[in-house]
């Protein structure tokens, strides 16, 4: 390519700087709020960097002293881990065989479109009967109940992602194994699934992030520390009477940390998933 | 192996997924339809059949019409801003500059930030007394006195749209960037040799590569924007004076705050119908775009 003109080079660098500031400033501010003392946060004019770094809120939120803000926060952290973990495992368990079957058997392909179409459904269209059913089974305010409900989001999504992953593994490898007399379970266990490991990992990450992010069902179906997830706990903090903005920001940083780390370190896998299989909503 | 057996085997492998989908999606959807013709309450009474009463009440009420309009504006404004800014950012990220790979990596941050954390963060930024936006605008002299961005009906929706846009434009940018990297360099070079200007190069060389992926992003983003709940619930709960009460918030209030399961269900189904119409229209559009290029 020919050399860029100097004006264009300067313009591109300035625009890149602006974009970097736009992206970074809000995230950085969340972090700064979390380590600023309350007087710094309430000062006018506002202090953009605290006089003294105050890390005490991290200690407060991660302590498990009974009846403290920390106890509720830690409980919701574990609830989020449990719900997202269980829902991810369950979604993969039912999506892997289904996605493989659709990928290798075009005759049943139309059923995949029916499953994907459900992904468009607004959660409000399912919420009332799900609430009544969970109440009936005694699964309201219960991590198992919430994980089950999360399958409405995770299962269609992972099936879609995995199907395109299986499509890119050549059938010929499987056919060759069939010639050699391998059984279906041997083919899947020894050939297809190891080859599909990267796409399965991507699907698991997406599923986990979706569940970690979920708010609507968690708001409706959980009510206290036994099942409340992080998103609901943070919304409670933000909407409640808590006047320590630093504490709210700290809770936000801690809740954002796992997905941000996954995002930064698994970038390649996530972006290939974003651009090929689908897009997280 | 016969074809018959292969198809049967495929159905068997799909059985767990289908059973779960019917249990957690199929059945609730059908039950929502049944409930929408009753006056059931969320807890207690099963309700009795009331025919189309709920639909008539909902469609003729001013609440629904106002929420529909609010949702429409939220979706149109946030999605179009996200598409435009996203494509511009992608064009920038496709240029050569120092720190390009770092900036590309940073683009994942707003996307990875949980929606509720994003909403909380912007709620703090917009805080009328101590928020960073007020402080910044006053310190650089663009604003005389602090404002309540989320507390005034005139600015609340726009403030929500800005927060939504910040979180979602990087996704559009990443999708567009991946598409841009698929444009063969020799085509761009050839068009430059032929004397094509910047605009016509974008319009006739680059855009055809972008059209497909961007259409998909547009569809998914519009459907998501139409269903929006989380960011609004955390930032304004539909207020002030119901100026940010989108359809999903309205359904939530009807079915869960007021516990009117029947009319909430009818409202939810109307929303579902609107999203479906939108999706079908878009699908037709995508097929047309694919056929044209």
Describe what you observe in this structure.
- The complex is a heterodimer of chains A (281) and B (293).
- Chain A contains 14 helices and no strands.
- With 281 residues, chain A is an all-alpha fold.
- Chain A has two domains: 54 residues; 206 residues, Orthogonal Bundle (MetI-like fold).
- In chain A, α12 packs antiparallel against α13.
- The longest helix of chain A has 36 residues.
- Chain A is globular and about 75 Å long.
- The C terminus of chain A is likely disordered.
- With 293 residues, chain B is mainly alpha-helical.
- Chain B has one domain: MetI-like fold (Orthogonal Bundle), CATH 1.10.3720.
- Chain B has 13 helices and no strands.
- Chain B is globular, with a radius of gyration of 24 Å.
- Chains A and B meet through α1, α4, α5, α6 and α7 of A and α1, α4, α5, α6 and α7 of B.
- Chain B: It is a multi-pass membrane protein.
- Chain B: It is found in: Cell membrane.
- Chain B: Keywords: Cell membrane, Membrane, Sugar transport, Transmembrane, Transmembrane helix, Transport.
- Chain B: Its main location: membrane.
- Chain B: Pfam families: BPD_transp_1.
Low-confidence stretches of chain B: none
Shape of chain B: globular
Q: In CATH, what is the homologous superfamily of chain B? A: MetI-like
Low-confidence stretches of chain A: 277-281
Largest sheet of chain B: none
Order of helices and strands of chain B: HHHHHHHHHHHHH
**How much helical structure, as a percent, in the residues of chain A?**
over 70%
Largest sheet of chain A: none
> What's the SSE pattern of chain A?
HHHHHHHHHHHHHH
Largest interface: A-B, 98 and 98 residues
Rounded to the nearest angstrom, the distance between the terminal CA atoms of chain B is 41 Å
Strand content of chain A: under 5%
**CATH hierarchy, class of the largest domain in chain A:** Mainly Alpha
Tell me which oligomeric state these chains represent: heterodimer
């Amino acid at each position: 390519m020919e050399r860029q003109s100097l004006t264009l080079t300067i313009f591109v660098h300035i625009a890149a700087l602006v974009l970097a500031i736009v992206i970074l400033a809000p995230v950085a501010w969340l972090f700064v709020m979390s380590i600023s003392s309350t007087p710094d946060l309430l000062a006018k004019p506002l202090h953009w960097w605290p006089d003294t770094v105050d890390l005490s809120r991290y200690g407060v939120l991660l302590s498990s002293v009974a009846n403290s803000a920390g106890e509720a926060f830690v409980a919701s952290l574990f609830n989020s881990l449990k719900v997202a973990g269980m829902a991810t495992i369950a979604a993969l368990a039912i999506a892997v065989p289904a996605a493989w079957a659709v990928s290798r058997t075009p005759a049943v392909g139309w059923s995949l479109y029916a499953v994907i179409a459900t992904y468009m459904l607004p959660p409000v269209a399912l919420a009332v009967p799900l609430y009544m059913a969970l109440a009936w089974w005694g699964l309201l305010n219960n991590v198992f109940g919430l994980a089950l409900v999360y399958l409405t989001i995770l299962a269609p999504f992972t099936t879609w992602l995995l199907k395109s992953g299986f499509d890119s593994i050549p059938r010929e490898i499987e056919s060759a194994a069939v010639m050699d007399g391998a059984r279906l379970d041997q083919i899947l266990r020894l050939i297809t699934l190891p080859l599909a490991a990267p796409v399965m990992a991507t699907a698991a990450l997406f599923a986990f992030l979706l569940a970690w992010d979920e708010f609507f069902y968690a708001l409706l179906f959980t009510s206290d520390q036994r099942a409340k997830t992080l998103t609901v706990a943070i919304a409670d903090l933000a909407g409640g009477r808590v006047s320590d903005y630093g504490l709210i920001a700290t809770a936000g940083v801690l809740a954002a940390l796992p997905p941000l780390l996954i995002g930064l370190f698994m970038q390649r896998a996530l972006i290939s998933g974003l651009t090929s299989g689908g897009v997280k909503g | 192996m016969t074809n018959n057996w292969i198809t049967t085997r495929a159905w068997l492998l799909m059985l767990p997924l289908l059973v779960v989908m019917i249990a957690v999606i199929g059945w609730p959807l059908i039950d929502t339809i049944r409930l929408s013709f009753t006056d059931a309450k969320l807890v207690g009474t099963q309700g009795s059949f009331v025919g189309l009463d709920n639909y008539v009440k909902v469609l003729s009420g001013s609440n629904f019409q106002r929420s529909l309009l609010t949702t429409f504006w939220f979706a149109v404004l946030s999605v179009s801003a996200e598409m435009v800014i996203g494509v511009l950012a992608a064009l920038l990220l496709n240029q050569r500059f120092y720190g390009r790979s770092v900036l590309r990596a940073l683009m994942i941050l707003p996307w990875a930030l949980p929606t509720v954390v994003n909403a909380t963060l912007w709620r703090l930024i917009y805080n009328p007394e101590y928020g960073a936006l007020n402080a910044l605008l006053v310190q650089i002299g663009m604003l005389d006195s602090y404002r309540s961005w989320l507390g005034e009906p005139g600015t609340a929706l726009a403030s929500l749209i800005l927060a939504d846009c910040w979180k979602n434009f990087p996704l559009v940018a990443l999708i567009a960037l991946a598409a841009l990297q698929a444009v063969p360099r020799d085509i761009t070079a050839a068009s430059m040799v032929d004397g094509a200007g910047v605009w016509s190069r974008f319009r006739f060389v680059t855009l055809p590569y972008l059209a497909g992926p961007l259409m998909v992003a547009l569809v998914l983003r519009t459907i998501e924007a139409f269903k929006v709940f989380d960011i609004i619930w955390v930032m304004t709960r539909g207020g002030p004076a119901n100026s940010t009460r989108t359809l999903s918030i309205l359904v939530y209030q009807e079915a869960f705050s007021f516990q009117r399961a029947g009319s909430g269900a009818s409202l939810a189904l109307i929303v579902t119908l609107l999203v479906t119409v939108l999706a079908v229209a878009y699908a037709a559009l995508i097929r047309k775009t694919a056929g044209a290029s």
